[in-house]
Amino acid sequence: MKKQTTILLSALVLTGFYSPIIQTTNTQAAIVRDVNDMVPSGKVLHFGEKFELSDLKEEACIPIKAYAETGQYLETGYVKLNQRNIWDLKAGKEIGVGAPSIYTKSNWGGHLEYEALNVNLRMTYDNNTKTFTLFDNGKPITTITCEVNEGSARIHYVLKDTNEEIYTHEQEQVLQYKDFPSEETFMVEPLRKIYDAPEPVGYFDAYDMDFEALANWNPFESEDDEDDVDFDSPIIKKYNRKEIDKDHGTEFTVYLEKAKPYTINFKVYLDNKPYFSKKVTGELHGTIPLQDEPKMPDSKVATLNKNKTAMSTINEYVPQLGTSIQTGSVLHSKIFNQNFGKIGAASTVDGQPNFLNTGIYAISGESLEDGQVFVNDDNAGRTTTLELYYESNQADETPDTSVIADVTIDSNLGKQVVKDVTGKIGEDIKVTVPQKDGYVADKTTVIAHVNPDGKITTEEKVTYTKKNTSEEKPGNNNQNNNNQTDNPNGNNTDSNLPSHYNGLVGTMKKPVDLYDFNNGQMTKNKQRQLADHTDWKVDQIITLKGIKYYRVATNEWVKDSDIYRYVAQKGIVNTKDVEVTYLADVEDKLINNRGLAANTAWKYDRIAYLGTNETKYYRVATNEFVKASDVINN
Known about the structure:
The chain is mainly beta. It folds into five domains: 13-151, no CATH class; 153-256, no CATH class; 262-392, no CATH class; 402-467, no CATH class; 571-633. The protein is built from four helices and 52 strands. The strands form 15 sheets. It has an eight-stranded antiparallel beta sheet with strand order 43-42-41-38-44-49-50-51, with no helix packed on it. This is Surface layer protein A domain-containing protein.
């Protein structure tokens, strides 16, 4: 609340005569502070109305209209006079007046409290004219102008993708007075904190979702040691109290982002062959109900290998974390042994553990409520694959029916021979299609049959097509446009003159120095650098003293050792049948705490050439690259 100030008027001496002396007093008329006091009490008088003050035998009030700074009429307040005020006015004294607070409703019914901007109010009674006069800094006034001191806001919660409004809420005491205009903000309440508000199933709550920041978050570079990603930054709404009145500035809309679901892949293998699989999904703020348990391999003929229990996780919103993989009997015990019995009657099926429901319950990390697993923010966009491996109980004397043979595959480039393929007689097996330099095959594997005579044959054919030339590694210097006149023998010597070069380069983990090229020499630019992890188009190349430089702007060059070259191309690569395909960062350093699972497909958005040997990689995340030789390009 603003402090009231009182100005004391001294006697005014004019040339030639004395004006009447008005005595002053700090006694103030009553200030309206409660909405119940915004009604007249006692005798109702008016500014400018003639009234014999000596006839006033009771308390009185004088109405005064209040307006918002926008010019809109708000309500009528009352300046209330008690007996002390009346005595002072009768004695010819000027009294200080506290401007009334104004309580009103917005057009939608929200609470608004205003306070007058007129803080230096004085009132007099003229015995000659028999009238009251109200002054603001010496100027007579009959109305007051007010600004919002406190109020409520209406929040509309709308689904961003469908524009459907799912809830409306009056958020109280948000338009509060602040000392600085820049602080005229408030935090929107998320739905989960509002009693009786609906859960936005399938959507993030009312939070400020910065997906770009999530996709670039690095737990190893954060100031604290928290590994959790922030999904609940508050939504901040700004307002301008000077523009608020009954009809304006008190309604706000927030848009709820659609969330990608939580996906669980449950896979069972028998002798390394698929036996059962199921995909289960759950919407954010929704639930995953108990599932029908599949019939597992009979324990009489097959044994569960707990050491091979495997779990891998991919996070859609934080792809930079890659795929986290866990295996082993300790993992199996953590997921299953510690959780049997916690999901009620569904703990066992025909006397065998309920692996499906227990697995969903355990890897979600959530409590079970009414036979359902709740999907929280951390699980949004997450895909978890849980794998169990059974092995047949075969006697040692079981004959080995495996054979090793070459497989011939027909193709448009002639017969392709795959050497030393292993398989068991009577089985169908997958055979990897040979890769041909400069070509892309229409399939990565073919199905072959192991015949009783020991031969392995396939009836499938493969078609090879030439690769898009844009996938080829860009030349490190443009041979067609190089300055051959300065270097007639074609040797790699300094020319001191730039050559044309069209390509793309990227910076790495630290800012990159720029160089100016003048008089055949490079000089470091001390004012400018290229930011880390940024991409640049280059149009010229030059070699000076054995060092290559690329031009990224007019007379701005970078060393080849400070950048890496790449081709902007999108596609899909598949990992091979190995337990983990490891990744590298942009500096060609191994990332040894995560990798890609076997036989999985990954999107890439560029082909990069990393390290001093410019090894070919595919970029599958912001700072994660997979070596071309470790994957199969589709």
